[in-house]
Amino acid sequence: MESSSNEHIDYVFKVVLIGDCGVGKSSLLLRYSDDFFQESYLCTIGVDLRIRTISVDDKRVKLQMWDTAGQERFKTLCGHYYRGAEAIIIVFDVTSENSFSNVLRWYEEARQLSRQDTVLVLLGNKSDMADSRAVSTERAQSLAASLNIAYFESSAKLCDNVKETFTATTRKMMEAYQKHHRAHLPDDLTNSKSLHMSQPIKSSTSLNCFDCSIM
Ligand SMILES: Nc1nc2c(ncn2[C@@H]2O[C@H](COP(=O)(O)OP(=O)(O)OP(=O)(O)O)[C@@H](O)[C@H]2O)c(=O)[nH]1
Ligand SMILES: [Mg+2]
């Protein structure tokens, strides 16, 4: 799925994953980028970056996926990444009432620090742990509906609905991009098919970006 450096890319989108410690943000990205799952918990220090190029409909999309640390001490650092994001995925753990109660706080912070056209999405992870589920699908759907954002459920462990969540989020980013840029183009350019956002980036690997300042 990775792209060569001179491949045609239609969109480059930044996606930021946020949410409490241990909800599975890194696991979701590890599953999505490397199709791997790790049982042991290694908390993220600062911010990590993973990159994957995908095809959605007839477009090639390069996703820069920023994995933020849930720990409070990294809040300020991670907040800096929200502004450059085309999408922010708020992750909670369906077996943790506490992580669900904190969704509203994450949402408000994301809204405050992101752009108006940033797509926000709610994702309940660890859906494989049916016996210890604390938050029903209906409750989560209802919260998402009240915030006017989409809701998805996934299991990074079983690789359930992970790809679908990123594909659906990518479609939403494409829609938001077209809507936003149409609104800012003169009438005679609104039918333009040229939708390149920025130069394709060359790196196609995971790296620790604790000290990066790309925003
Ligand atoms: N059963 C199950 N366990 C999961 C799933 N996703 C993650 N985990 C486990 O949950 C723990 C925490 O996962 P991480 O991905 O490190 O969580 P995180 O959100 O990145 O945590 P921070 O980096 O501290 O913010 C690990 O032990 C994972 O193996 C899942 O879908 N199902
Ligand atoms: Mg992590």
TrEMBL record:
GO terms for molecular function: GTP binding; GTPase activity. The keyword Oxidoreductase does not apply. SMART domains: RAB (SM00175), RAN (SM00176), RAS (SM00173), RHO (SM00174). Pfam families: Ras (PF00071). SUPFAM superfamilies: P-loop containing nucleoside triphosphate hydrolases (SSF52540). One of its GO terms (cellular component) is endomembrane system. It is found in: Endomembrane system. Signal peptide: none annotated. Its main location: membrane. Keywords: GTP-binding, Membrane, Nucleotide-binding. PANTHER family: RAS-RELATED PROTEIN RAB. This is RAB37. The lineage of its organism: Eukaryota, Metazoa, Spiralia, Lophotrochozoa, Bryozoa.
